[in-house]
Each structure stands twice: as C-alpha cells, then as structure tokens.
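Moderator note: this is an archived Q&A kept for reference. The question asked for a predicted structure of one protein chain; the sequence and the answer are reproduced below.
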Amino acid sequence: MSAVTLPSGVLAMADRGEAWAAWVARLPALVGELLEEWELRPDGGTAHGHCSLVLPVVSAGEHAVLKLGFPDDESAHEHLALQHWHGEGTVRLLRADPHRRALLLERAGPDDLITVDDVEACEVVASAYARLHLAPLARLRSLSRLCARWEERLRAVPRGAPVPHRMVEQAASLARQLAADPDTDARLLHGDLHYAQVLRADREPWLVIDPKPLNGDPHFEPAPMLWNRWDEVVASGDVRGTVRRRFHTIVDTAWLDEERARDWAVLRVVLNAVWELDERAPDRGWITANVAVAKAVQE
C-alpha cells in the first residue's frame, strides 16, 4: 500500500547517484511494508535527515518514529549502538530490521540543541559523553583503520590545492600517529554528535539520536560542535573567540585532554576541506570555515 508522500528533500537525494535513486524509489513501498508488518499507524508528516526518512507513528499505543536510512557504512550498525546504550541518554530502540535499515525508535523532540545557546549546548553534549563512551563493540568500524585510509587521501592532495598545504601535511601526520595509537579504538563513539542530534524529551531533558557508531577515541567527538551553526560563529564577529569558547567548554566539561582533542579537531576539519575538493563544484566557503576552525583551536 502507498503510505507516504516523500518530501522534496528526500526526492532530491536521488540526484546523488544510482544507489541513492534506487533507494528513494523503493521508500514508499518499504514504508508500506513496515507499517503493515510492525502494525504501525502514521501519526504526522514525514521528516528527513541527510540520509534518512523519518515518519512519526503509533506503535501499540506508544508514540514512536519509523526511521529508514540509506544503506551506507556509517549507519550499518546504528541499531547495535542504540541497543547497547539501552536508552541511557539516547532514544530507546524499540525494534530493528538492519537488512532494510529500518528502526522503530522512541519519539523525542521536535526541539533540538539548535534552539539553545551554543555554549550551553556544548555543556549538554559534553555531559553526555560519559554515558555514551562505553567499552568498544565487536563488528563496528574502527577509527584506527579510518585514520590509515585518511592518511592516504591527505598524502594525495596536490600542493596547489586551495587548502593550506602545511595543514594538509599536519593532518596526514596526525592521521598516521593516531592510526598507530592503541587508545584510538578504546571506546564506543556516537561518531557524529552535534546540536541537531540531541532532542528535547520528557523521559530526560535531552536524548541523543542518529549515531554513526564506531570504536574510537572520545577526543574525536567534539569537532562537529565547532563547525555546526557556523552562521552564528561568523555573525559573532569573533570567529576565533567563538570557536575557542565552544572547544574549551567541551574539553573542560567532559574532562578531555586538550591537546588530544585539538589534534582530532584539526584532522577532522582538514579532512572536511579536502573531501570538499572532490565535489563537482566545491564550496569555497565551507573550505574556508574548516580552515578557520583549524586555525582557531591552535592559536
């Protein structure tokens, strides 16, 4: 049965390539199948993330959401992480079909940390780390292996690329060092925790959603809090000061090692800039923003 009209943002995902187009085309039928099999009733309009469709539903009288994700490597084991956390600081996993990348989740929101002052939001996220960073799980991606791949990509950047070459060399060196560090795979990580991934809730004040789980280093986590809500950073008139306030708020609240958190932040933002070079029409503003973060945390 046809159970959903796809929002324009999801339809636009089909332009990302053949695999995306096939996934988008399959979504309406897949939603219908799951609503019937799991005895769900739609309970509101659809929403979406960067690579998922979300439909509010009622399941056995309980408000929930049905999430269907694009089958990429980052989200392959989302259900395992959520299951392991048991709703401690995160939305509860109610049911999962990993082969169809389908999750039935506790409903939270719609307000997220974008509605909160950025420094206060940094405190909320940093306070969540201890509950999320549990012992590593089998089957998850490892950060050390990713670092080894990232070093190769960084070494291949030509000297004339529009990213400061000294930063590219620095990031490649960091990737090499961190790939060999035994602490790099020491804990379970969310992998992409930022303002939009924390929703206001009733069971707890805030609940984390949408992990891209991997086994890694907790110091890897803060970087997305620095580059998200970038318009606010620019509007502050003090890019360096605003970035550094966010960074030090997270480091201090979570009792992280400042130098190690700085190294991961530099590596991650330089990678952002380098990956942008692979786009057909690279966004120079995005490259500039990531270079600015790398400078700010090191000055």
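Archived answer notes: The mean pLDDT is 96.
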